[in-house]
Write a structure and sequence with these properties.
With about 300 residues, the chain is of the alpha/beta class. The protein has two domains: about 130 residues; about 150 residues, Rossmann fold (3-Layer(aba) Sandwich), CATH 3.40.50. It has eleven helices and nine strands. The strands form two sheets. Strands 6-5-7-8-9 form a five-stranded parallel sheet, sandwiched between helices. It has a four-stranded parallel sheet with strand order 1-2-3-4. Helix 4 links the parallel strand 2 and strand 3. It starts with a strand and ends in a 14-residue tail after the last helix. The C terminus is likely disordered.
């Protein structure tokens, strides 16, 4: 399958990660089998994967098509040549970083998941769901699950089976998301969401995606450092006491957020216009690249 995405969670760690697993599910539905099964063209897909390490992995292909990918990790050290077709990127910050046209800043391609899953009406959505980053799940999953159970919060991790993860987000009334694709899926399925900072939060990519849909980037900090708690510093406390204090603070912040969160959604018209732009781009790629060998094509959106 000529789709490039971040596969380390599955190949190295043997686990799922929803934000990456979107690619084989969605892109194989969107793009022609002639492209997907071919040896000449590679779709560089959804995720924060525009960097030199990933570019080196696709250099062998005669044609590289970037579809809604994002920058945000590591550097970009090359000039894009005619073998690259930058069809669209996640948002304006990625476009600026690539020195590409602002017109290529559409949105994250995961928005099109809602073309394959029916969003439940608001009247059938209920409860608050917390979605940690997959790395946070590994490091704090046990305690976070216990806190969420105690507080009546649904704890949904990105390593769940794909359809189950979608279903959990779809039926939630509010999603508290540290994992950005938890928020992206929630927005696509019209489930209001709140961005959270805990252990793994990349400001660049969140700002990039939020700007693409015209929504406010205003994350809530759930992190362990005390703020306004009366402690000047925890560094002088014994380690065991310090950890207990931080756990109590985290639980208190989760509880407060679940009760007082001000979730948001992109506007219906804005989301639909972005989705239609993505559909049009997919149709263009299929029409132009599935029927002609890359070596005979000269048109490129390379910046």
């Amino acid at each position: 399958m000529a789709i490039h995405y971040w596969q380390n969670y599955s190949t190295v760690h043997g686990t799922r990660n929803f934000g990456d697993d979107i690619n084989p599910f969605l892109l194989s539905k969107l793009f022609s089998r002639e492209i997907i099964d071919g040896d000449d063209v590679c779709i560089v897909g959804i995720g924060t994967i525009l960097n030199e390490r990933n570019f080196q992995q696709v250099d062998k292909y005669e044609r590289k098509i970037v579809f809604s990918s994002g920058a945000g990790y590591e550097s970009i050290e090359r000039e894009f040549d005619d073998s690259w077709f930058i069809s669209c990127v996640r948002g304006p910050k990625t476009a600026a970083y690539l020195k590409a046209s602002p017109d290529l800043a559409v949105t994250d391609g995961a928005a099109l998941l809602s073309d394959f899953y029916t969003a439940l009406p608001a009247s059938r959505k209920e409860g608050v769901t917390f979605v940690p980053h997959v790395n946070t799940t590994w490091r704090l999953g046990g305690i976070l699950k216990q806190f969420c159970d105690d507080l009546g919060i649904n704890y949904v991790t990105p390593d769940l089976p794909f359809d189950l993860f979608v279903d959990e987000i779809n039926r939630s009334a509010v999603v508290l998301a540290e994992a950005m694709h938890g928020a992206i899926l929630a927005d696509a399925l019209r489930t209001p969401w709140v961005a959270c900072e805990l252990m793994v939060h990349n400001r660049f990519k969140w700002e990039d995606w939020c700007a693409s849909l015209g929504v406010k980037y205003d994350p809530v900090n759930l992190g362990p450092a005390p703020e306004g708690s009366g402690f000047e510093s925890l560094s002088s406390l014994p380690r065991g006491v310090r950890n207990r204090v931080r756990k109590l603070q985290l639980k208190a912040r989760l509880k407060k957020l679940s009760l007082t969160a001000l979730p948001q959604l992109s506007e219906d018209a804005v989301l639909e216009s972005k989705k239609q732009a993505l559909r049009d781009i997919v149709a263009e790629i299929n029409a132009q690249h599935a029927t002609a060998s890359p070596r005979h094509r000269s048109d490129s959106h390379a910046p």
